[in-house]
Amino acid sequence: MKTLGVDLAAATKKTAAAVIDWSDDRARLSHLALDVDDQEIVDLFGSCDMTGVDCPVGWPDALIPFLTGHLEFNAGPVLEHDGIAGRRLLAYRDTDRFCTAQTGLIPLSVSADRLAHPAMRCAAIQAKIAQLHGPQPRDGSGRLAEVYPAASLKIWGLNGRGYKGRGVPEAERLGLLLATLEEQAPWLDLAGHREQITASDDLFDAVIASLTARAVGRRRTLLPDDAHAKAGRSEGWIHLPSCGLDGLRG
Known about the structure:
Blueprint: E1 2-7, E2 16-23, E3 26-34, H1 38-47, E4 50-54, H2 63-71, H3 75-79, H4 83-91, H5 94-103, H6 116-133, E5 144-146, H7 149-155, H8 168-184, E6 188-189, H9 194-198, H10 201-217, H11 229-235
Parallel strand pairs: 1-4, 3-6, 4-5
Antiparallel strand pairs: 1-2, 2-3
C-alpha cells in the first residue's frame, strides 16, 4: 500500500504532502514536499492507494438552507437556527461533534473560522480529482478520507500540544514529538527527512495524515454508524484511528 498525507493550507505556501510506502512490517517515507500546488496533489493522489487530507471535505448540512433562505428572504429556514444552539449547527458538522465526544478536541469550524479558506480549496481539489479518477465519497469509503492529525496524535498517546509555530520553544517541542514518534514506531523509516520534518510542523502533520490514511485503508478507524452515515456522506467524516501505531503495520 502507498498512502498520501496532505496538510492543506489555503494556498500553495505551507501546504505539505507526505507519501509512505508500506511493505511487510516496514514503512518508508518515500516523498516529502512543502509548498505543494493543486496539480501535484492530484498527481500524487493518482499514484497512491489512500489519501488522508487534513481539511474538511464538506460543510454542515444545515448551512445550505440557511444561506438559501437568507438569499431569498425566506425567514423560515433562517429562524430555525436562531440562537446559539441553532448557530452551532451551522458552524459544526456531525463529525465535528463526534470527534469532540471521542477525543475532547474541538475541530475548527469550516463555516465560521479561517478553516473555510482551505476547505474552499479542498472542494476544488476534490473536483479536479473527480474529473480524472471519479468522485470520492466524503465519508472516506473511497480513496480520499478526511483526517485530523491532532486527534490521531492524541489517540496514539503522543503529546501534540505546543509544537505549531516558528519559535524556538515550538521547534523544540516538535523535535521531541518526532523523537517520540520514532521511538514508538521504530518500523517507520524517515529516509533522511528528519531534519526537514523537525523544521516544519506542516510536514510533520502531513506525515501524521499519511499514517492515518494507512489506518483508513486498513479499515482501522471509527466509521459512521447508522446515526451518522447520512451526514457523513454529505458533510464529510473525520477518520479517527481505532488502533495504535503498531496496528498500522503488517
